[in-house]
From TrEMBL:
Residues 230-264 form a coiled coil. GO terms for biological process: potassium ion transport. It comes from Methanorbis furvi. Keywords: Coiled coil. InterPro entries: AAE_transporter, PhoU-like_sf, PhoU_dom, RCK_C, RCK_C_sf. The keyword Cell wall biogenesis/degradation does not apply. PROSITE patterns: RCK_C. It holds the Pfam family TrkA_C. Residues 108-192, 306-392 form the RCK C-terminal domain. The keyword Thylakoid does not apply. This is RCK C-terminal domain-containing protein.
Amino acid sequence: MMDRDYQPINLKDVLVEMKDISELMVDLAYSAVLFESNAIADEVIELEERMNDLVYQARITSMMSVRRLEETEPMSGLLQLAEASQRISNQAADIAKSIMRNVSFPANLRKALPEAEEATHRVVVGAASDLDGARLGDIKLQSVTGIRIIMIRRMRQRFYDPDKHAVLRAGDVLVGRGPDYGFPALCELAGQPVPDDECCDSAAISDLDRAAALMIEMKNISELSVGLAYTALLHENMDLANEVMALEEELDEMRLKLDLWTLEAAKRTDDVASLRGMLYMSSFAESISDAAGSIADVILREIDVPPIIKRIVRESDEIISWVSVHEGSPLDKKSLAESHVGTVTGMVIFAVKHGNHWTYRPGRNVCLYAGDLLVARGRRDGEEKLYGLCGADTDEIEDFEDSE
């Protein structure tokens, strides 16, 4: 029987929030492992409860929305998107619950996690600290620390993707994303001590070291797959959808290697229990990639992509941008390091197309040229700066959104 308190809601808004929450849960789950933090794990589990509510709302609203047979195919694409978000959420919650059950993770893995492309950090604003009563726009956290705030939790309220007008208060829990080297500065501003680095066993096990390094590669590939999948959906691009499926197969092979190296390491360590966490992590990364494949499958099966899907991708906390480098622009003939794209825009470039060749997760030394296509994710104000660096007219953003 339907809940009598149920009120019809906008399906787009539900799916936007599901996408945002699932991506945030992934970041927090990895962070919970890195810091072995029950507090961060608890954030993930609370977000899972919100996700469960959204899944219920999405199912009911979708069933109430379909009136004619021809509407069922576009709706199936929307439900596939919702299912992918839920799958990611469930896996992130499983990682968090393993932390709460005191499942240990190898020190090798915790040491390697900060070497991933971006780390997620959590800090509480202390009373009378530099952040207490400050506006985000005034303190320029990203410029000072390299970390951008993606969520503020105040008591039971959560504010996703806060803008420059957000005022911080003592007791606020800040969740930020950025390089590991910026975390000590963030802790200092928040009036909190910097956690001590844990020392790893000096008699490191080579198989376990290799497994930890491979786990980071799996993390990066799985997150890249999700970004590419949403880009394929946004632009109905079959080539990118096929790339997502290829990455999924590659990650399946990597998981087999990871599990083998982990089992080999078990022969030479007394702390076999800690290796169980590595197996959890490999399953987690594979599940994220599988969810990305489910998103890309909407394109591969040539399901009619309704305009609402494109609005979902564009209106989420972290938008996905697709822009070409223009001749004579500040990025033309410059490497990513020379142009300081990440610092100036806050956007993360996760794919570059030069001619017919794609480069995924481009390094700092990758040089950009006129005609290159950049795929990036970040905040909307960062997108405008990226367009400026590329020499593109920001009217192109408006034209794209109007075309939806």
